[in-house]
Structure formats: C-alpha cells, structure tokens
Write a structure and sequence with these properties.
CATH topology of chain B: Rossmann fold
Oligomer: heterodimer
Number of helices of chain A: 7
Distance between the termini of chain B: 56 Å
Number of domains of chain A: 2
CATH architecture of the largest domain in chain A: 3-Layer(aba) Sandwich
Order of helices and strands of chain A: EEEHEEHEHEEEEEEEEHEHEHEEH
Radius of gyration of chain B: 21 Å
CATH class of the largest domain in chain A: Alpha Beta
CATH architecture of chain B: 3-Layer(aba) Sandwich
Helix content of chain B: 25-40%
CATH topology of the largest domain in chain A: Rossmann fold
Amino acid sequence: MTNKILAVLEQREGQIKRFGFEAASAAANLAKELNASAEAVVVGNEISNINEISKFGITKVYHLKNPDLAIYSSTGYTDAISGFANEAGYNLVVISNTALGKDLAPRLAVRLNASCVVDCIKFNVSGNDIVFTRPTYAGKALIDVKLLSEKKIITIRPNVFKAEVVENASPAEIDVKEIADVNLKCKVVSFKKSEGKLDVAEADIIVSGGRGMKGPENFHLIEELADSLGAAVGASRAVVDAGWRPHNEQVGQTGKTVSPSLYVACGISGAIQHLAGMSSSKYIVAINKDKDAPIFSVADYGITGDVFEIIPALTAEIKKIKQ
Amino acid sequence: MKIVVCVSHVPDTATRIKVGSDGKTIDPSGVTYIINPYDEYAVEEALKTKEKIGSGEVNVISLGSEHNKETIRKALAMGADGGILLKDDTLRDSIGVAKALAEEIKSSGAQLVFMGKQSVDYDNSIVGQLTAELIGYNCVPVCVKLDMDGDKITAEREIEGGREIIETSLPVIITCQKGLNEPRYASLKGIMAAKKKTIEEKTPEPYSPTSEIIKIHLPPGKQPGRIVGSDASAVPELVKLLKEEAKVI
C-alpha cells in the first residue's frame, strides 16, 4: 500500500525550480487521493527559497546538505537520496521529468528496488491502485501503465501538473541533514550556456521556423518575434539537418517533445515527426503559404500566406500591445 | 579495449501508429522497422573511439526477436566487429531490458558502452542509467561530446539551457544524442562483410516484469482550427484572438 510519498525538488544555483514545485504539488495531490502522507527532499548547499514549499501542500521538507552537492552529480545525488529514502521507507517517489529527473529516477529505482514509469501526464487512483498515463512514439500514442512493485518511482512531464498554491498553509518543517561523504565519481565541472536565451524544453511560448524560412539568414525574423513574446526559438528537423539551426532547438520525434501554452509554427509544413512533438501544445498558430500543409490540421489559428510579410507584421503588432 | 553498443529495433519515425488487436501494443502491419536513430550515433562513436585507440573490438547487442538481426546487421555493416542477439520474444519494460543488457555487458567485460539516449518507440530514456546502476558503471546520459584520455572521460551532456561538462572514468555507459557525431553510411564492402559475420544468439535470464501496460490508445484528435486570413492584414485579428480568446499572450 502506498502511504509515504516523497517529492524530489530540483534545484539549480540554490533555487528550487518551478518544476520542483510541480512535483511537490503532484505528490500532495496523490497523497490526498491515496490517504497517504507527502514529504519533500531537496539536495544542495544553501537553498534560498526552501520556505516556499509550504505553499504547495507539503508539511515537511528534508534538506540533504553538503557544499559538494551544490551542483548536481548523478552519483552524489543518487547516494544521498537513496540512502535517505530507503531509511525513511517511502514507497512512492515523484520527480519532474527534466534532464536531472530523467537521470536520477532510474538510478533511484535500482537502489530502492522500485518499479518506474517516466514522463507521466496523468494518473488515476482507484482504491490502492494507480494507473499512470504517458506518451509513447513521441506522443503519437499514449499508454496506461500500472507499476507492480511495492515501491514506485514516477517522473512527471514538466508544464502538465501545475504547482497549485494551497490557501492558508502552515509553514513546512525544514529538517537539514548534513551529508558526510559525497560520491563524485560523476562530477559536473562546468556548465556551457546555450546561445539561445530560452530553452524550448522549458519555454511557455515557442516560435519555430521551418524550411519555409528559406535560409538561416532569415531566422532573425523568428528571433525577433520570439523576443517580442518572451518565447524560445524552435526549429523543424529539416532546418536542423540542413545546419541552419542548432540541434537543441529541434522540436519533434528526434528532437524535443514540447507542450507550451502557445506554439507558433512559421514555414513549417508539419511532418508527422514534427506534429508528434508539438501537437499537445495548448494553442497552436500556423503561418504557411500552403493551405493544404498538415500543420493546419493541428493549428487553432492559421494564416495562409507569406511568412516574410506576416512574421514582421505580427512582431510589430505584439510589440504594440505589449507597450 | 572491448566496446559494446546496444541497439534497438524500432518502427520508422514516419510510422502512423495504429492500436493492435491486443489493445496493448501497436499494430505492426505495414510498419517498417529501423535501427533506433539515436543508436546510429552510438555505433558511430564506438567505431570512432576504436579507430582513435587503434585497437579493440566493437560488439553490438540487441534484445528482442529474430527481426532484431536486421538492425544488428546494419551496425555490422557500419563496421562493428560482432553481434549478439539476446533472444526474447516477450515485451520487457525498461528495467527488464536493462537487466538483460547488464548481464551481457558484465560477462563481456566491456569497459565502454554506448547506446542511444532513448528508443523512439517507448521513449523512456532510462535504460542506460538503469543498466549502469545495475552493474556499478558510471553513466553520462544525453551525451553530445566525448573525450577520452586513458580511463578518464570528459563528456558534455545536454540539459535545459545548455551543456554540463562531466568528468568521470571507465567503466562507463554513454547514451548518445544527436549532435555527438555524423553517423557514417555503410559502404558496399561493409554491407557485404556484414552478411558474412555471424550473430551469436543467447537467451537472457527470465524476467518478471515490474510494470504492466494496461492499454495503448491514441491521443484525442484535434479539431481543425480557424484560418484567420491569407496575408498580413489578418495579423491584428490573430493577435486579438490570442489575447482575448486563447488568453496566451
């Protein structure tokens, strides 16, 4: 029976990230439905916003602390969390499905002898059973999965489970546990920031360009529109393979699967691999001169016309309303 | 040095998914199966590493049915030395896949293991980490750059907003991301040579699953949207809709 739930809160640079709070909120909601308790853990050195956890329905948070754990290390974090979780006897662990979550969850699964399901977008509790729904084939299909082990580890897709603020929550108890020996067999020695201002995997709005942009020299139009919206720049596989844009911008089956609030596809016809990676976006705008392009079959709003005329006009209009 | 590459046999990314008659897997009729695209980067990196060291052996492992031999042959045609099919016709979850791979990697004594960062069928992206953890190897998932100096590894891994530079050591499992290299094409000579290479068959230890697929289903279809116009004059209307109807800007 699932009665002790643990949310793992992701922190970077000493700050718990929004996706960490999403995991906390999902854990608190699962606890309610399963009549279980939900606690949280954060690994790091100084954590500036640890008090904020109270807002998300968590009453106790453990801080596994050591200066060598300030930056993520797969070996260091796995040792720290698995040691703690095994001792405390959690039987359901919730982590956000970020780069860190995807790295950590399977390692914890082995250490805790747990079963594991990743990238969940929904869960359904009936009695003591939980059915998890997750996308497969880049979102072309969904599977419903049941975990059979007593201990379970799940990761949840970012931006799907909202970090819900609980009214009048009492302050969470913070329990700091100093971690003695840190295992740094895998050590992050530095971080190279990518050129783009925002990453498609984290952005709430994405403006993507495809082959209809005619060449890399025209992507400044996409960048300007993205800037006006505070959006990340994305790209289709065709333009990444052509070397017009870096791979970390690629959206679709061999790139990133995204679900932002708004996805603006410019000069993208909508190959099946691309549609799979973005069609779960909340709203989709397509700008393409070919009215029969498949992208229009998933778009909420479309303009069938010349991207070189429409994108600058759209940028200007957005700037106007944002003034 | 012994190098192992793990490859999976997956539906082509252009596949339109139909639910199979069991309701739990996809309908395989008319589906073309290919080597998992990310595994091509793994094969390439293994071959490149062997060439750089100047000696060694690259063996390809695949878990699955007789059909996986096509994918093993593809890797052999690119230049891998030998292939092993871990024959199992059942569908395993990620932990089950990792257990079979871990068993084989351990007994092979390989110090360096490459695989794709995820298979484009189930998209779990956890098999590398699970396998590493099971046999106590280090692991760098989603690798886009790799340097080796003796048993010291410096690898770049893609995360949100940039790349982590990671230092670790052998034995290690590297899961490969697009951008790591440009996979070579199999030469005609390579294809001919691959036909002559034997693929060893082994039976992995039986596995009792830790998860169960209850059903596979298609996501709810989207209603076609509204065409707002056909030139820049439609822009103010579009912005108004985004602001007032969709409320996303």
